[in-house]
Amino acid sequence: MAQSVGPRLYSCCNCRNHVGLHDDIISKAFQGRTGRAFLFSHAMNVVVGAKEDRHLLTGLHTVADIACADCNEPLGWKYERAYETSQKYKEGKFIFEKAKIVKEEDW
């Protein structure tokens, strides 16, 4: 049986638009609005909304919601700024809600 040679992709749960690469996952131990969430270093085919300050579990952050560029399904958010020094590593990174993305193919 042949193995897939392409990148391992995550897609929008609604329209299957590719939104992230498995290799870009930094952590699977995050909490989103709907439960478990993944922290990604990069995202693709998403639109970034307006920035807003939000009090999250780890303190105050400036975030922008992200949605699928094809169907506008809300997928998570982008960390624009972290006010706590210990949280600065999140800046520029993306949270994808696990319930909003699906693995592509059988990997």
Automatic annotation (TrEMBL):
Domain annotation Yippee: ranges: 8-105
Keyword terms of this UniProt record: Metal-binding, Zinc
GO terms, molecular function: metal ion binding
Pfam families found in the cross-reference section: Yippee-Mis18
Zinc as UniProt keyword: yes
Family: Belongs to the yippee family.
Name of the protein described by the UniProt record: Protein yippee-like
Organism expressing this protein natively: Microthlaspi erraticum
Organism taxonomic ancestry: Eukaryota, Viridiplantae, Streptophyta, Embryophyta, Tracheophyta
